[in-house]
Predict the 3D structure of the following.
Amino acid sequence: MALTPSNMIELGTKAPDFKLIDAITNNVFSYEDIKGERGTVVMFICNHCPFVVHVIDEIVRVANDYRVLGFGFVAISSNDIVAYPQDGPAAMWENARKNYFTFPYLFDETQEVAKAYDAACTPDFYLFGPDDRLVYRGQLDASRPGNGIPVNGRDLREALDNVFNSRPQTMIQKPSMGCGIKWKS
């Protein structure tokens, strides 16, 4: 597994829109459909990445803790499923059910959405405020497989708390690290 950092796009960037099929319900969702009143978290994940597997329980906990406070959550998988069939829609459905996803898990077949967000790795997290402007991008927390640091979602939780309480975000935002998105050739 090659360690790839997320691209730290400019804060204030407007959330790119999308229309993608949810692997759980087979419904089409747009950014507007999943947007939360307080803010919106867009996550790029996949099924097989050991970095995602390491934090998936905390991702679900964070979504459950904050969606009741008015935040929207969505996960998007953009990997090339020809080269990585374990990341295809049927496996996405199984993964979402196994891990009790309470948010849509969208399939970005063309990879255009990942490109629009400048996503680089899985997991990759983007938090947009109520005005759909980027206020946080980077890591869930400092835990990585094998580094001994507990998974607690600290960085993303702090960013969500700052939005909820109308506090300024820290300018020290660390990139996420994970498997590179599997781009089509």
Summary: The chain has a mean pLDDT of 96. The chain has five helices and ten strands. Helices lie at 31-34, 50-67, 89-98, 112-117, 154-164. The radius of gyration is 15 Å.
